[in-house]
Each structure stands twice: as structure tokens, then as C-alpha cells.
Amino acid sequence: MKKVILLAEIDYNSYSSRRFREECNKKNIAFEHFKYSDIIIEFRDNKLIATAKGKNVLDGTHYIFRSSGSKYKHLSQSLRNYLQSMNKIVLNGSFKYPFSLKLDTYAKLSLYNVPIINTHVFPTIEALEQNAYKIKFPVILKHSSKSLGMEIYKVNSLEELKSKLNDHISKYMFQDFVDTGEIKESYRIITLGYEIIGGYKRIAKKNAIVTNSGSAIEKVHIAPNMYEICKLIIKATGLEFSGIDIIYKDEKPLVLEVNSSPGFKAFEEITKINLAEKILNYLLSKS
Q: I want to staple 204 with a disulfide (CB 3.0 to 4.6 A). Which of 151, 152, 184, 267 is the partner?
């Protein structure tokens, strides 16, 4: 009997949890959602046991991993690897998750000559100061392991930049600030099964520096140059399911980020595409 398990540190009534549950119910397939913060790992009688609120986390046939946050990243990676060793079907199972997804993604994209935003990573404060001449202020300071717009700042000087560091400097990326004018916009493209499904435009709130929170959205036609970049990204990363964020500078697309567990509420609402159903159909087809 097939059973889909969603592992995600999100509310049980959140949009993606509810949508996967709805689509599984339509197919008469069992569904469970477990939070990482509820999972207990034990080794007894030479076996690994994983439970959440008394339920077995390991009795699923198909698994969807969504954002674990930095707090539970190691648990997420360990469970993903173990489940695959048990021949369970895992979405994005062939993708090897590194400690820093952003840096690893940029490295892979560079091998395929994908246009990415200029980015710097420094090992120490001293290295930053010695190479400050390479940085053109203002810049965007971004924590390499955070998501959902967390720890992203626009900084205007070296001193301001250093004052924003809440973690070791090597965990931060310094990226060019792309001034798109009064209206700040970016594009989110969704891919599934190594194909491009669709996308939408995000327009930031006034005075915001990111477009992924509280933004206005509208359906968008994927331009040929954006389409070709997305196909290269699929090839470079090997991700079965992803959200690709793109910004334009001087009418040329630049990749901001590739998300391996993108939210899809806005996508479904604006495109009217039933992405939850598509994800399940794809996952179940791998049986």
C-alpha cells in the first residue's frame, strides 16, 4: 500500500501540507505530515527507529522533504540518506545536499556558464578588509544557509557591513546590488520532472530589498533567454523539483537562487496549475 509522507517544519494546517493531503485523499493514498521538531531517533536492537508523536516515520513508500531550517538540516539529510538506502522513493532523491546549498549551487551553475549575480565569500574579516576594493557598495549581505528572506541586508559601507555579521563571516555571501529602478521585481520559475512548469513575477513592497515576502504577483510568459537558463540549471543541479529565482540587469537575466523545496501557494493561485497534483503524480510514477 502506498503512503506519502511529508517531512517539513511547517504547521500541519499550512498550505502545502493541506494541498498534499487533499490530493492524496482524491487518490485514496495514505498521507502523513511530520515536523522535524517532533521526530525522535533511536537505535535499539541494532535498528534505527524514527517516531513522531508515537507514529512510525519510516513506514512510508514515498517522501517529500520540505524546508527544515538550519536547526534541523542534519536530521533532514540523515533521514533522506537512510530512506534512500531503504529503497524509498524520495523527491529530489538524486540530489546530494551539501552543507551550504547556495554556494554549492553557484559552483555547479558556473560549470555550465549560467549567468549568476556577482558574489564574494571571505574566510575572515581580515580577508574582507584586504579585498574590500573588489566590492562596489551598496551590496546585498546574505547568510548562505538561511531562507525565506532571513538575514538579507542592503549595506552601504564596509563598517555597516561588518556590523551586520551575526555569524562567522565565511557563512555570508556578498552580492552585487542590482538596482531595477523604482519597481523591484524578480521572477520565480517552477520546474518538475526536469521540465519547466511555469512561472510568475514578484514585485516588492515599497522600500523592500527582497521580492519573496509580501510581494505583489502576476503571471508571466517565460522569455526564451530565461527558458534556456532554466534548462541549463536543471541540467547543472539535477533537481527534479525546484524554484528558480531570476532578476534582470540591463535586460539580461541573472540567477539569484535555486530553491530545492519552493513554496507553491502563489504559483497555484496565479497560474491555476494544480502543482500539488503534478508533484504527487510525478512522485508516484517513480514507483
A: 184
In this structure, are residues 259 and 6 in contact, taking their beta carbons and an 8 Å threshold? no
Triad 255, 70, 169: Cα angle to 5°: 70
Are residues 253 and 111 located together in one domain of the fold? yes
Are residues 232 and 258 both part of a single domain?
A: yes
Tell me the pLDDT tens digit for each residue of 174-228.
898 887 665 578 899 999 999 999 999 988 765 555 555 556 688 888 999 999 9
Give me the CATH number covering residue 65: 3.40.50.20
| pTM (two decimals) | 0.89
CATH assignment of the domain containing 223: 3.30.470.20
pLDDT, one tens digit per residue, over 9-60 is: 999 999 999 999 999 999 999 999 999 999 999 999 999 999 999 999 999 9
Taking the CA atoms of 22, 23, 28 and 32 in sequence, report the sign of the dihedral they define: negative
Q: How many domains does the chain have?
A: 3
- Collapsing DSSP to helix, strand or coil, 57 comes out as coil
